UniProtKB/TrEMBL annotation:
SUPFAM superfamilies: An anticodon-binding domain of class I aminoacyl-tRNA synthetases, Nucleotidylyl transferase. One of its GO terms (cellular component) is cytosol. One of its GO terms (biological process) is glutamyl-tRNA aminoacylation. It comes from Turneriella parva (strain ATCC BAA-1111 / DSM 21527 / NCTC 11395 / H) (Leptospira parva). Its EC number is 6.1.1.17. It is found in: Cytoplasm. PANTHER family: GLUTAMATE--TRNA LIGASE, GLUTAMATE--TRNA LIGASE, MITOCHONDRIAL-RELATED. A motif ('HIGH' region) lies at residues 10-20. The keyword Phosphoprotein does not apply. A motif ('KMSKS' region) lies at residues 250-254. Residues 359-511 form the Aminoacyl-tRNA synthetase class I anticodon-binding domain. This is Glutamate--tRNA ligase.
Length: 518
C-alpha cells in the first residue's frame, strides 16, 4: 500500500474559520492515524482577494492549533513550490498539453456576453450551462482572434457521460456532464481556475486522499474529468458533513466566519478546541468525547464521519441574530457565547486536566490583562496567586473567565444594597447577629496579615451556629453571604483562606453596616 498523503489547501482571502480549521484537522488526523504525510498548500490564485496579511493569519492559526505539516510553506519539500501563485508555469504547461490533445480550447466569449446568456437561462428557470460557442473554432479562427489581442480563457472540452464518484462519507454519487458543460480551466488573466489547479497540484504532490467539506462535492465531477483527461489516478474522496449553527441552519457568513484566533483570545486552549472540532461530524469508535490530540491521532478514521450536519453550538444565535460575529471585539464576542455549549464543557475538562505548572503559565497572560493583580505579583512564583488560580480553575470554561473572579481577591469590597435586597439570607432578622458573630470569630484568629486556616474557619462557622442557633443552609449560606458578599463560589473554608483575614473582616464589617442601613 502506498503512503497516505492528505493536504489542506486554504485560500488566503480572509481569516481561517471553523469550517476551514475542521477540514485541516481531519486531514491532519487522518494522515497521522495512517502514518502518512500532511501537506499544506496555499491556493492564492484569486489575486483580487488574496493578501499577505491573510496568509500570515492562516499560518499563525494553524500553528496555534498545532498542526505540523510535513511539506509546505516554511517547511519546504520535494513537491514545491507550495503556493499556487508560484506554480503558474506548471498550469500553463499542462493547459497547453490539453489544448494540443483537443481536450481544451480557447474561449473568446466576454464576461458581459456570458452574463447575458446566464440571465436568459435563469429567466427561463433553467440552470446555466455554457453553450459551446467557441468549441468549434478552427485553428485559423483562434489565431486570428489572438492576433487581434482578444482576451480569452481556456475551457475544458467536457465529454458526454456520467461521472460516478465513490465517496468514503457520502457513498456513491452520480453526475450527468450535460449539466456541467465546458468549464473554464484557465482564466483570462492567465491564472488557473480552482478545479484545474487543484487537480494538477494534487497529482504532482501525490495526494492520495482529498478530505473536504460536502460543499465541494459539486466540484468533484469536474476534477474527475480532468484526472481522466490526463490519464492520472483519481484520489480517494471524502466529503464531510456541513456545519450548522445552534438554530440548525447553515452557518451564515456573519456567524461562521469568526477567526480561529478569536477563540484563542477568548481563552480556549488549542487542546479543547481541537477536541471540539474533531466531534463536528466524526465520532470515536467507543463513543468517547473528551480526548487528547494524541488519542485523536491514533483512532481517527474518516470513514466514521457522518453525512448528517454537525452542530456548532458555541454561540447563542438568537441573541446574535443581527450581529456580524467576525467583526466584533473579543469582549463583545464573549457576551454571545452559549454557556452550555459542548465546547465549554470540553474546555473545562481540559483546563482541569492541565498539569499545574502548565495551567499557571497559560493563564498568567489573561491574569495580567485584567490589570487587577499588581504587576509585581503577577508571576508563577507568587504562591498566593498560584493558590487562587489553582482553586478557581474548576469554575473556568475559558482562561479568559478568570477576570470574573480576581477582583474578590485584589480589589476593595464595595457592596451595593440593591444587590442584596432580594436575598432571603440578607433579609433574615438574624443576619446582623450572624455576621457580627462571624466577625468576632475571625478577629480572634492571629494578626491582620495572617492566612486563615481552613480548619479554624470550619470551627468558627460551627461556633457561629451555636451562638445564633442556626444550622444547615441558613447558617452556611448566611455566613457565606456575610463574609464574601456572594452566594456562590469556592468551598467557603478555601474561599476565606484565599481572601485572608484582612479582606474577610472588611467584608463582614461592610455587610453588617449595609444591613443596618437597609
Amino acid at each position: 500500500m502506498s503512503e497516505i498523503r492528505t493536504r489542506f489547501a486554504p485560500s488566503p482571502t480572509g481569516y481561517l474559520h471553523v469550517g476551514g480549521a475542521r477540514t485541516a484537522l481531519f486531514n491532519y488526523l487522518y494522515a497521522r492515524s495512517q502514518k502518512g504525510k500532511f501537506i499544506l498548500r496555499i491556493e492564492d490564485t484569486d489575486q483580487a482577494r488574496s493578501t499577505e496579511q491573510s496568509y500570515h493569519q492562516v499560518i499563525d492559526s494553524l500553528k496555534w492549533l498545532g498542526y505540523e505539516w510535513d511539506e509546505g510553506p516554511e517547511v519546504g519539500g520535494p513537491h514545491g513550490p507550495y503556493k499556487q501563485s508560484e506554480r503558474l508555469h506548471i498550469y500553463k504547461e499542462y493547459g497547453e498539453k490539453l489544448v494540443a490533445e483537443k481536450k481544451a480550447y480557447p474561449c473568446f466569449c466576454t464576461g458581459d456576453e456570458l452574463d447575458r446568456k446566464k440571465k436568459q437561462r435563469e429567466a427561463m428557470g433553467l440552470p446555466y450551462v455554457y453553450d459551446g460557442k467557441c468549441r468549434a473554432l478552427t485553428p485559423d479562427e483562434v489565431a486570428e482572434k489572438k492576433a487581434q489581442g482578444l482576451a480569452h480563457t481556456l475551457r475544458f472540452r467536457t465529454p458526454s457521460k456520467e461521472v460516478v464518484v465513490e465517496d468514503m462519507v457520502q457513498g456513491t454519487v452520480r453526475f450527468d456532464t450535460a449539466l456541467i458543460g465546458d468549464f473554464i480551466i484557465v482564466k483570462s488573466d492567465g491564472f488557473a481556475s480552482y478545479n484545474y489547479a487543484v487537480v494538477v497540484d494534487d497529482h504532482l504532490m501525490d495526494i492520495t486522499h482529498v478530505i473536504r467539506g460536502v460543499g465541494h462535492l459539486s466540484n468533484t465531477p469536474r476534477q474527475v474529468l480532468i484526472y481522466e483527461a490526463f490519464g492520472w489516478k483519481v484520489p480517494a474522496w471524502a466529503h464531510v458533513s456541513e456545519i450548522v449553527g445552534s438554530d440548525h441552519k447553515k452557518l451564515s457568513k456573519r456567524h461562521g466566519a469568526t477567526p480561529i484566533t478569536a477563540f484563542r483570545d477568548l481563552g480556549y486552549t488549542a487542546r479543547a478546541f481541537n477536541n471540539y472540532m474533531a466531534l463536528l461530524g466524526w465520532s470515536s469508535p467507543d463513543g468517547r468525547e473528551y480526548m487528547s490530540i494524541a488519542e485523536q491521532k491514533s483512532i481517527f478514521d474518516v470513514a466514521r464521519c457522518s453525512k448528517s450536519p454537525a452542530m456548532f453550538d458555541v454561540f447563542d444565535l438568537a441573541k446574535a441574530a443581527e450581529v456580524d460575529l467576525a467583526q466584533v471585539s473579543i469582549s463583545e464576542l464573549e457576551t454571545y457565547l452559549f454557556p452550555k455549549s459542548k465546547l465549554n464543557w470540553l474546555s473545562n475538562q481540559h483546563i482541569r486536566a492541565t498539569p499545574d505548572d502548565d495551567f499557571i503559565a497559560e493563564i498568567l497572560p489573561f491574569v495580567a490583562a485584567t490589570g487587577v493583580v499588581p504587576s509585581g505579583e503577577c508571576n508563577a512564583d507568587n504562591e498566593r496567586l498560584r493558590g487562587i488560580l489553582l482553586s478557581l480553575r474548576v469554575y473556568l470554561d475559558t482562561l479568559g473567565q478568570i477576570k470574573q473572579y480576581l477582583a474578590d481577591f485584589y480589589l476593595p469590597f464595595n457592596p451595593v444594597l440593591e444587590n442584596y435586597v432580594s436575598s432571603e439570607y440578607f433579609a433574615a432578622e438574624n443576619f446582623s447577629s450572624l455576621a457580627g458573630a462571624m466577625l468576632r470569630q475571625i478577629e480572634q484568629m492571629g494578626d491582620a496579615t495572617d492566612t486563615l486556616e481552613q480548619n479554624a474557619i470550619k470551627d468558627a462557622i460551627n461556633a457561629v451556629g451555636k451562638e445564633t442557633g442556626l444550622k444547615g443552609k441558613p447558617l452556611f449560606m448566611g455566613v457565606r453571604l456575610a463574609s464574601t458578599g456572594r452566594l456562590e463560589g469556592l468551598e467557603l473554608p478555601v474561599y476565606l483562606n484565599l481572601l485572608g483575614k484582612g479582606r474577610v473582616t472588611e467584608r463582614l464589617s461592610k455587610m453588617v453596616a449595609l444591613k443596618k442601613a437597609s
